[in-house]
């Protein structure tokens, strides 16, 4: 992670290359015109709006808090103390004068990373398959409780970027689904859950961070230095696809958003004024704080003026001892480069999030340490100083294992069933196959950050992980189910032990084969996969294993643990493969959850949150695995627009193996009685008028002598402080270009009232976008003899030439008794039937004929009706 080319002289330099005055206008580029796309400038950075619904109390408290702070104290809560400087994966400085300990920010989106006595929840991309708002919320709440009770202030999740443009993207599983609506609903419920527990959610990674290769400058050293990949996207695709779930997260009140490593339209996202100032804080009305991904900040003043509010982990390179902020932020205020209101705004946004979720009531001191599980150790791990009690081993799991098991079982998707399932447990001879069925020989946490594929797969690898408290294997749970019924169960968990596999398969009356496919974050390479998958095949010879077992056993059940779709068409139609299940990455209760489904204790009701295809190319453009531009940013043009996953398959008329939204049950359902009722809603009015001027909360002295190192301070090696080490500002900056006359973007320091943005007006965007225009109902009947869950799904066809054939807009998971009916109710909002208009920079309802469809998957939509406006 060391990137030595980031010389300290960049600390206060404004990186001019990062904004453009090219007359692309606020619309950005148009589809098909993505080569070397530019990101237009937008300044000043919007300041917090104290009248925002839901935020008024929090903002008032935050402003009162910030008013009493000195310049150094304000800098301290915006700047991390440096990598491994304190207990958490990232910590800001503190305010000792007020007894304020600073912020602890901690991974991950599926549990507390780097800690013991915590739970391992199902991954985001797995719980998405439950299509269950209640499960999304409960998982978020319980993860929040665990973070809170360990003492963390900010949970670094949930994830909606990557969205999952290409299924090979290494971190897709951390997020929910390549569908923006499923992702949007999941992220909103998760944010609410986390924050109701009293912890700030940090929704990440904003934005277009769709691959691991070249995510940061210099990250893929095999090619020499290569700059960060640029995700080039047009304005319409940005709004209708990638921004959509972020808007939902903002509307749900996310206190923080993490800006991502990559460039977007050739501008580093953490200093991209169009994305941060205009889109996120302007149009979406985000009132919380933007935190950088770890070392994703690449400039001082430029990122400050472009809206960054907190830098993590604080140093410009891990443990360089230098920071773009810290002393350089102090300096930039006193030399007038950055107006103090911008720093005040950053500090206010951080404190507003703090009060919004009630950190003032919930905070417990941090009682764990990320860098060791030892009870005693160094408070400052990198500096190796401050020896003492650092891990109190507080057990924060409560009874979360129960909900984890329920959520994992509810997220299991039954893809094929020729009557083989459910099993009864009294099958004559059960054989279990696959390394994926059993324990890892290294233990469930044997590989750092889960960076290996050994034993059953229950999470991917990288920072999006936690330690397992235990991992119930499928083999253990199947043994439990069979042994109590007097059956026999044998297993072979070496995928290449052909002789034993064939011998056992021949004896089996029921064979259950477990296979997997893994991926993760790019700082770890597993089996040649540098984060992103190299292909969509099943790992460890799993496809051959299924073929061999099913050649000898005509009742072969396949269970897939994977980060996303895998290629299964070589066996999915085989008569001897009698059932197929996708169980995702289920977390600690993996075995129990799959056994619940296999043995009918739970009737499966999960639905695919993505599409299973026959070929990687069906999903659209490949990831960029090699430089396209010499040492410059590889250009990754999102030329497919909004057509990813099922929208791509539908557009190209490709028959998937299993489509988005598909999933079977042990009963069957039918659909009838579609009703569509128009609701009177007023006309859509653009947001107009002027904002308030920037609040002035402080007027600090510009006398450098007041910000010098305190005489009695003990320096912690490489720790980031806010102090200057000279009254000579040039010397203090350590910047050979200090004082060079840079051109700053027009308006960047202007704190006067600014025009409001037409599509804005409330958290997530113009509140009228959520006006209900139609209510839809349909009847769902359970035609079988057992109770089951069904997820009726509502899709729209917007009718235009650049619109998907169908696009998901709503769903509800219903439990229906045998022979009973239930009513599916769904609202259709203005946003649901609008397109982004790049010219008016607003949402519009086009004149194309619009249709609503209801059914059980993206390809099984028996009920349809035209919408009349
Ligand atoms: C980098 C990852 O991209 C981000 O998701 C994570 O929160 C930080 N590292 C901290 O571990």
From TrEMBL:
UniProt enzyme class: hydrolase
Q: Which GO terms describe its molecular function?
A: beta-glucosidase activity
> Is Protein transport one of the keywords UniProt gives this record?
no
List the keywords (alphabetical): Carbohydrate metabolism, Glycoprotein, Glycosidase, Hydrolase, Polysaccharide degradation, Signal
One GO term under biological process is:
glucan catabolic process
Q: What's the catalysed reaction?
A: Hydrolysis of terminal, non-reducing beta-D-glucosyl residues with release of beta-D-glucose
State which Enzyme Commission number(s) the record gives.
Answer: 3.2.1.21
SUPFAM superfamilies per the UniProt record, alphabetical: (Trans)glycosidases, Beta-D-glucan exohydrolase, C-terminal domain
Q: Where is the Fibronectin type III-like domain?
A: 790-858
Q: Which Gene3D superfamilies match?
A: Glycoside hydrolase family 3 C-terminal domain, Glycoside hydrolase, family 3, N-terminal domain, Immunoglobulins
Entry-linked Pfam families? Fn3-like (PF14310), Glyco_hydro_3 (PF00933), Glyco_hydro_3_C (PF01915)
Q: Which InterPro entries match?
A: Cellulose_deg_GH3, Fn3-like, GH, Glyco_hydro_3_C, Glyco_hydro_3_C_sf, Glyco_hydro_3_N, Glyco_hydro_3_N_sf, Ig-like_fold
Kindly indicate where the leader peptide sits in this chain.
1-17
List the pathway annotation.
Glycan metabolism; cellulose degradation
What family does the entry list?
Belongs to the glycosyl hydrolase 3 family.
Q: Which PANTHER family match?
A: BETA-GLUCOSIDASE (PTHR42715), BETA-GLUCOSIDASE A-RELATED (PTHR42715:SF29)
Name this polypeptide is given: beta-glucosidase
């Amino acid at each position: 992670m060391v990137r030595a080319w980031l010389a300290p002289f960049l600390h206060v330099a404004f990186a001019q290359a990062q904004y453009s005055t090219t007359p692309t206008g606020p619309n950005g580029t148009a589809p098909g015109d993505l080569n070397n796309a530019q990101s237009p400038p937008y300044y000043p950075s919007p300041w917090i709006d104290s009248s925002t619904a839901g935020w008024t109390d929090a903002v008032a408290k935050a402003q009162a808090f910030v008013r009493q702070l000195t310049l150094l104290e304000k800098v301290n809560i915006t700047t991390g103390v440096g990598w491994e400087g304190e207990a958490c994966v990232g910590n800001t400085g503190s305010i000792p004068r007020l007894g304020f300990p600073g912020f602890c920010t901690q991974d991950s989106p599926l549990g507390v990373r780097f800690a013991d006595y915590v739970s391992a929840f199902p991954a985001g991309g797995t719980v998405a398959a439950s299509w269950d708002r209640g499960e999304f919320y409960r998982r978020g709440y319980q993860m929040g409780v665990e973070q809170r009770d360990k003492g963390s202030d900010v949970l670094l999740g949930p994830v909606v970027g990557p969205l999952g443009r290409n299924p090979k993207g290494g971190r897709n599983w951390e997020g929910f689904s390549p569908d923006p609506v499923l992702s949007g609903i999941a992220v909103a419920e998760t944010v609410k859950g986390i924050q109701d527990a009293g912890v700030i959610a940090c929704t990440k990674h904003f934005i277009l961070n769709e691959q691991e290769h070249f995510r940061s400058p210099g990250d893929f050293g095999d090619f020499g230095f290569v700059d960060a990949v640029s995700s080039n996207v047009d304005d319409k695709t940005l709004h209708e696809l990638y921004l959509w779930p972020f808007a939902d997260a903002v509307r749900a009140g996310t206190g923080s958003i993490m800006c991502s490593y990559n460039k977007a339209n050739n501008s580093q996202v953490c200093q991209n004024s169009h994305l941060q100032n205009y889109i996120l804080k302007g149009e979406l009305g985000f009132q919380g704080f933007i935190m950088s991904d770890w070392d994703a900040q690449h400039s001082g003043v430029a990122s400050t003026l472009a809206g960054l509010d907190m830098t993590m982990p604080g140093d410009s390179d891990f443990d360089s001892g230098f920071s773009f902020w810290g002393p350089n932020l102090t300096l930039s205020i006193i030399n007038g480069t950055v107006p103090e209101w911008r720093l005040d705004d950053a500090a206010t946004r951080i404190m507003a999030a703090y009060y919004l979720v009630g950190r003032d009531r919930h905070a417990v001191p941090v009682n764990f340490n990320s860098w060791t599980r030892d009870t005693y150790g160094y408070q400052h791990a990198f500096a190796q100083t401050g020896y003492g009690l650092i891990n109190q081993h507080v057990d924060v799991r409560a009874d979360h294992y129960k909900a984890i098991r329920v959520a994992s079982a509810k997220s299991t998707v039954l893809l094929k069933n020729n009557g083989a399932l459910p099993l009864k447990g009294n099958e004559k001879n059960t054989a279990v196959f696959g390394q994926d069925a059993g324990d890892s020989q290294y233990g469930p946490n044997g590989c750092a950050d889960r960076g290996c594929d050994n034993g059953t797969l229950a999470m991917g690898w990288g920072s999006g992980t936690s330690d397992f408290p235990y991992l119930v294997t499928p083999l253990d749970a199947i043994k439990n189910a069979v042994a109590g019924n007097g059956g026999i169960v044998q297993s072979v968990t070496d995928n290449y032990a052909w002789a034993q596999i064939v011998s056992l398969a021949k004896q089996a009356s029921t064979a259950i084969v477990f296979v997997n496919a893994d991926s993760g974050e790019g700082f770890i390479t597993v089996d040649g996969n540098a984060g992103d998958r190299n292909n969509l095949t099943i790992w460890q010879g799993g496809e051959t294993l299924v073929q061999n077992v099913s050649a000898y056993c005509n009742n072969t059940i396949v269970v897939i643990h994977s980060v996303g779709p895998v290629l299964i068409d070589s066996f999915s139609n085989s008569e001897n493969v009698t059932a197929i299940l996708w169980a995702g990455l289920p977390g600690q209760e993996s075995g129990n959850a799959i056994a619940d489904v296999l043995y009918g204790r739970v009737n499966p009701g999960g639905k695919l949150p993505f599409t299973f295809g026959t070929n990687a190319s069906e999903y659209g453009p490949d990831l960029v695995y090699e430089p396209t531009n010499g040492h410059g940013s590889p250009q990754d043009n999102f030329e497919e627009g909004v057509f990813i996953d099922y929208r791509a398959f539908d557009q190209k008329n490709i028959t998937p193996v299993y489509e988005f939204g598909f999933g079977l049950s042990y009963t069957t359902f039918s659909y009838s009685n579609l009703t569509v009722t128009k609701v009177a809603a007023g006309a859509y009015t653009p947001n107009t008028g002027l904002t308030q001027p920037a609040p002035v909360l402080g007027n600090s002295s510009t006398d450098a002598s007041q910000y010098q190192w305190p005489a009695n301070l003990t320096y912690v090696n490489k720790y980031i402080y806010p102090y200057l080490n000279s009254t000579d500002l040039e010397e203090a900056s350590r910047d050979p270009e200090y004082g060079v006359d840079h051109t700053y973007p027009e308006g960047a320091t202007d704190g006067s009232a600014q025009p409001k943005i037409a599509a804005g007006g409330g958290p997530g965007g113009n509140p009228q976008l959520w006006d209900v225009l139609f209510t839809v109902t349909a009847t769902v009947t359970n035609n079988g003899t057992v109770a089951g869950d069904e997820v009726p799904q509502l899709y729209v066809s917007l009718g235009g030439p650049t619109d998907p054939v169908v696009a998901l807009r709503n769903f509800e998971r219903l439990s229906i008794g045998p022979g009973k009916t239930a009513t599916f109710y769904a609202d259709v909002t203005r946003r649901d039937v609008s397109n982004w208009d790049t010219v008016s920079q607003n949402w519009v309802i086009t004149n194309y004929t619009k249709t609503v469809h209801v059914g059980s998957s993206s390809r099984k939509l028996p009920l349809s009706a035209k919408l009349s406006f």
